[in-house]
Amino acid sequence: MKVAVMGYGTVGSGVVEVIESHSEIIARRTGGEPLEVKYILDLRDFPDDPHQEAFTKDFNDILNDPEVKIVAETMGGVNPAFDFTMKLLGAGKSVVTSNKELVAQKGLELLEQAEKSNANYLFEASVGGGIPIIRPMTQCLAANNIEGIAGILNGTTNFILTKMIEENMSFEAALKLAQDNGYAEKDPTADIEGHDACRKVCILASLAFGKHVYPNQVEAEGIKNITLEDVAYIQSANGVIKLLGQIKYINENKIAAFVSPAVVYNGSQLASVRDVFNAILVRGDAVGDVCFYGRGAGKLPTASAVVADIVDCAKHIFRKKIFGWGAGDEDYVVDYKAELEMPFYVRAKMSEAQAKATFGVVKYLSRPGQPSDEVAFITDYMTENELKAKLEGAEVLNVIKVTNY
Q1: CA pair distance 232, 285, nearest whole angstrom
Q2: For residue 317, what pLDDT is reported?
Q3: How far apart are CA 187 and CA 203, in angstroms?
Q4: In the predicted model, what is the mean pLDDT of the chain?
Q5: Integer CA distances (angstroms), 63 to 43, 162, 318, 348, 354, in order
Q6: Cα 27 from chain centre
Q7: What was the pLDDT predicted at 74?
Q8: Cβ neighbourhood burial of 147 (10 Å; 0-12, 13-18, 19+)
Q9: Residue 248 confidence (pLDDT)
Q10: Residue 296 scores a pLDDT above 90
């Protein structure tokens, strides 16, 4: 079966490599028919690459070739990926992608076009890289009502926080190390500000609850305000700080979804996830907590998920999979600061007496070298708006949500 790959960067080249190096295994899993990469679309030249005959700079070569039934889109970004994917689906070709930005922004439109054309649009690699999560959620957990999801969805931020926790490294030093090791881009904004995790939260929420969630509905708070002082205080409470994407079911018309640093206690499966590894915990009403763990990015882990989708499309080449979600609305994602109650970690310039007068019973934390005018504590359950009102006028140094996952 002829396939095409659009975008020959890290993931795209990995897709070609996996298809070639695993040809016999893939053929067994497609019912005996091997995959052959007929086209590789990229505007750049690769003079030393062994696949010269497959390269093209003209998208229409792929669109108009009836032999090509499945296309892997690994270009990244919304444009021209959206335009190309809509045309391919409209022509009845199935498309698989690792492009989380495109799925988060335009997934509904692309799924609707796939439905019209009896084609498939699959995106296992868009959330967890090499971690299987989309199939397990839509198939293995199909008998459950999903109550919530919490995920370490960005390897760069998890690497930075691991270095801060385990090696007492400052945020700035840990970020530079991540960049030196190739885990963080020269401009790390999408990672450290939570935008990358936000896109993945949108996809997970849309799949779990059946209505499209857009990135502008999901508030994202990054990790650049996390300090070694915060790390030390939270260690005294037997916890660690993780950047979590969290999704909570409220009712069939309302969910909460957000990205933020969170205190995770050491008993949680998420607390032990280190370095660039990712983990996604899904809480179902029948199965309880299920955790999916592995490398959330990287050339071959991500490529393996893309190729798995290609294999799935090859097995369903003459039929449409029941897969996707419907339209959402502006009020579907609630203002979680007003609706959700949770404990909070607070670090502020005040005395324990002032903290007790404001919050009543709290759990006080300590750290080596703690200044006499600084206090850190864990509150009881309350909304973030209630917390803000209680702290009005105080010199607050940091506030971090405390998770129950």
Answers
A1: 35
A2: 85
A3: 24
A4: 96
A5: 16, 45, 18, 60, 68
A6: 30
A7: 97
A8: middle
A9: 97
A10: no
Query: CA–CA separation, 307 vs 124, rounded Å?
Result: 10
9 close to 76: Cβ distance less than 8 angstroms? yes
Sign of CA dihedral 20, 22, 26, 32: positive
List, in order, residues 6 or more apart from 358 with CB less than 8 Å away: 390, 391, 394
Question: Computed over its alpha carbons, how large is the radius of gyration of the chain?
Answer: 23
Which is it for the CA torsion 127, 340, 264, 354, positive or negative? Answer: positive
**258 pairs with which residues across the strands?**
219, 246
- Selecting among 200, 242, 248, 299, the annotated active-site residue is 200
Q: How far is CA 390 from CA 293, 345, 355, in A?
A: 38, 14, 10
Which tokens in the block code for residue 351?
């005395």
Cα–Cα dist 99/383, whole Å: 34
CB 146 within 8 A of CB 284: yes
Active-site residue flag, 248: no
Q: Determine which helix (DSSP H) or strand (DSSP E) holds 283, and give its type and residue range.
A: strand 277-284
Calculate the dihedral angle through the C-alpha atoms of 326, 100, 87, 329, rounding to the nearest 10 degrees: 30
* pLDDT of the residue at 320: 82
Look at residue 48 and give its three-state secondary structure.
coil
> Tell me, what's the pLDDT at 205?
97
Q: What is the pLDDT of residues 298-320, one digit of tens each?
A: 899 999 999 999 999 999 887 78
Q: How many CB atoms lie within 10 A of CB 344?
A: 24
Residue located via tokens 């935008």: 195
For the record, the structure tokens of 133 come out as 């999560």
